[in-house]
Amino acid sequence: MADMSLSYPSLVQKTYFIRTFGCQMNLHDAERVSGLLDSCGCLEASSPEEANIVIFMTCCVREAADQRLYGQCSSMKSLPDAPSGRRVIAIGGCIAQRDGERLLDTLDNVDVVFGTSAITHLAELLNATFAEGGRHVLTSENPDDVATSLPWHRATGYHAWVPIMTGCNNFCSYCIVPYVRGRERSRLFEEIVDEVEGLSRTAVREVTLLGQNVNSYGRDRYGNPRFAELLRAVGETGIERIRFTSSHPKDLLPETIDALAEVPQVMPHLHLAVQSGSSRILKLMNRRYTREYYLDLVERVRERIPHIALTTDIIVGFPGETEEDFAQTLSLAEEARFSQAFTFIYSRRAGTPAAEIPDDTPREVIQERFDRLVKVIEGTAYDYNQHELGARVPVLVEGVSKKDSHRLQGKSPMNQTVHAPVPEGVDPASLIGKIVDVDIDVARTWYLSGTVVGDPR
Length: 457
Description:
By secondary structure, this protein is α/β, with parallel strands linked by helices. It has helices spanning 24-39, 63-75, 93-99, 102-106, 122-132, 177-181, 189-200, 219-222, 227-235, 254-262, 279-284, 291-304, 323-336, 363-385; strands spanning 15-20, 43-44, 53-58, 88-92, 112-114, 136-138, 159-163, 165-166, 185-186, 206-210, 241-245, 269-271, 309-316, 340-345, 392-400, 407-411, 417-421, 435-443, 448-453. The chain is 32% helix and 21% strand.
């Protein structure tokens, strides 16, 4: 980690607090921001009250994220004075990239706005604010000047986010991401493998490969997708567990399914966002596959990996969705047998094609459909988890339950949450980042529980 404190003397010993909204890419960006501030001599604070620098890493996929940001920025005005000197409020991430200087007009206590490709310049912006005053905005920057070049401060020692690409070329009609993250830009193949090899020599047990559409990895740089090849290469680095997100159905190639089946380090969990079960709505969404294609893809995946955990995203209430369209979504969810689904009511995003589609469906109708979908997902999730009753599951321990400090919490290979009593005489902290075997005797909708057996490893 480079020492940058001499370059930015006004940041030395400043305290910072980061609040992150949204996707895993935002979590990774927040880790890089934290690493950058550490290298400038800053110290992490445990709360906004204790911080000289408060940073919001934002998401603009849904309208609720905007409202949350505005509410939290306003709440900063009621905080007591910072421990020493002024408190600087900064906004990064996708809302910052989308709105830029407009944020300064609507949020009078915000001092710094930095876009998704301007993270590397955050220290300069903060330094100028502390040293010279004023308010500073930077959203337009070299798209190759990305946060992967920065040091990082990981939230945990046993897991690491590893971005393999940034941006998106899909332009789904409801999605703002290509407009704020830009077009796809793949990292060098060897650079990713070297990074994971380095992580494997530390305490990291699991990596998650990140991209808006990992299945496209390499197409922009090498002419053809190389994601399957990358999975195999990462599997040879010594890392124990590999996950990835997100995966677009139209680009899930047979060779990627083969790698998922054949590389033991790749966990048997696939997040494959369907968004709708209606081919008509999928066309309006510009998803570029049909209901039939998706279900055939699910069948092909399960032929190779029978017990794979399949998770998804589904939008309810897309403009023009009829009861017949929604019925198609319900039946697809039942047929696909998802182990989990992230379900959302459509959120209009200005600047996207879907925002121009008229729709007069009453909100209460959309809510009632959403509730029906949730019940179907609860049923398929519960059914999936029943397969684990009586099984011995290797669990990567993440900590203890928020509700009971005497119960461990971790993740199975299928990404299920697993609880188990802390073994007698064992300090729970000593098990964080370890893998323990758990004999499962309870299988609920959203978790498994059982008893730890044998020694941790």
